[in-house]
Amino acid sequence: MSFLRTVLNNSVIIHPPGFYIIGFQSFPYISVYIIFLAFVYVVTLVFNSLLIYIIACDRCLHTPKCLAVVNLAVTDIFLNTSTIPSMIKTFLFKDNFIPFNLCLLQMYVYYAFASLESYALAVLAYDRLIAICLPMHQSLFNTIRIMSCIIGLTWVYNLVRVAYSTAIMTRLSFCNSVRVFSYFCDYAPVFRLACNDYTMQWSMASTSSMINLMGPFTFILLSYASILVTVFRMKSVSSRMKALATCIEHIILVAVFFIPIFSIFLMGLYVRSIDPDQRVLSLSLASCIPPCINPIVYSLKTKEIKIRALALVHRMKTSP
Predict the structure, then answer these.
(1) Which residues contact 120 (CB under 8 A, 6 or more apart)?
(2) For residues 34 and 32, what is the distance between their CA atoms, to the nearest angstrom?
(3) Which one, of 147, 159, 69, lies nearest residue 110 by Cα?
(4) In tens digits, what is the pLDDT along the chain, a chain of 320 residues?
(5) String of DSSP letters for the chain
(6) In angstroms, rounded to a whole number, what is the distance separating the alpha carbons of residues 80 and 72?
(7) Digit-coded pLDDT (tens) for 114-155
(8) What backbone torsions phi and psi does residue 12 show, to the nearest 5 degrees?
(9) Which end of the chain is more exposed for a tag (fewer CB within 10 A), N or C?
(10) How far is it, in rounded angstroms, from Cα 187 to Cα 7?
């Protein structure tokens, strides 16, 4: 294997042609699991695309909430596209080599959209916060233009931040192992293979993880604390139930996304001997399942979207 040598600040930086993804070494039913993920990917593509189509084609659904739902759907498609096709290639077709530049690209796309997923859930929490706590000020704080600006800012912030995080990986020199123990070209497993100092990359990874998970999650918690205070001030029980019912689908999505991630993090802190394959399996499930569930939950739980989806299905059945 020939290595590419470059000079940076009078030191030689060695980049390998690529890496070998080594995961699920002792997992007995890996082929079955990957076929299951292939099904998950198809569901992700079909249902998220259908959700985007329904909202785009119906002017009645051109609202701030539905714009936030489209943002989540687009993020879901990119997030699962960044990992599942490469997992099929790696573990089903046994081609586990990934070129160096393609490794960095996969790393960039995955972490950009994993971060955007948590911010997309926070944006939906903002929509519920304004709708329930400040219903008379919707036109002031939650319009299509304002929602577009908020979503645009989250995209610019995350795409630029992850671009920097990925760019600094090129400062690392890989002169020993090129075997990445994960289910894709993962950030931490890759920089730990470096034979020079990776303090900068470790600091960036740990800081980004805390900010881009805890930041949106804290905002969601504070939003729902405010919503609960407002709801319990309502005199009518039916008004309380109606207000809370509009939050059910979002609460489900928040739980599906954050609970597995925090569980894996806590297990890493307090359980010393975790089987590496179990860890890779848990991480891959926590990453791939939410983008598949999100559009189904919104299609079934959001009345306006459900009505349009059923009308579309009926139209397809009756058309010649």
Answers:
(1) 68, 71, 72, 75, 151, 154
(2) 6
(3) 159
(4) 555 555 555 567 888 999 999 988 888 889 999 999 999 999 999 999 999 999 998 888 899 999 999 999 999 999 999 999 999 999 999 999 999 999 999 999 999 999 999 999 999 999 999 999 998 888 899 999 999 999 999 999 999 999 999 999 999 999 888 999 999 999 999 999 999 889 999 999 989 988 999 999 999 999 999 999 999 998 888 888 988 888 988 999 999 999 988 887 777 656 555 677 788 888 899 999 999 999 988 777 677 777 777 777 777 777 65
(5) ---EEEEETTEEEEE-SEEEE---SS-TTHHHHHHHHHHHHHHHHHHHHHHHHHHHH-GGG-SHHHHHHHHHHHHHHHHHHTTHHHHIIIIIS---EEEHHHHHHHHHHHHHHHHHHHHHHHHHHHHHHHHHH-GGGHHHH--HHHHHHHHHHHHHHHHHHHHHHHHGGGG----S--EE-SSS--HHHHHTT-SS--HHHHHHHHHHHHHHHHHHHHHHHHHHHHHHHHHHH-S-HHHHHHHHHTTHHHHHHHHHHHHHHHHHHHHHHH-S---HHHHHHHHHHHHHHHHHHHHHHHHHH-HHHHHHHHHHHHHHHH--
(6) 12
(7) 999 999 999 999 999 999 999 888 889 999 999 999 999 999
(8) -85, 125
(9) C
(10) 23
Structure tokens at 22: 């080594």
